[in-house]
Predict the 3D structure of the following.
Amino acid sequence: MTALYVLDVPENTTVAKVAAEDATVTVGKVGPYFEITADGPIVVDRRATGCRHAVWYSCVAGVAGGDITQHDKHALRIDPA
């Protein structure tokens, strides 16, 4: 299982919302973080989130069971390890 952790603050809520649009992704909460999980890769399109670049590049709080293979102005992608 691949997991992405994003701090639950107003600036980051759209990251979780866009991730949840993928039927293979589950979004839950662990403490003050959104826990975004999937059996396969997790891909979030930056433009769909509406995040500005500073927020986008600082949204990742942690990753488990995978590696960040893309984190640029287009998308954030975590692939299973």
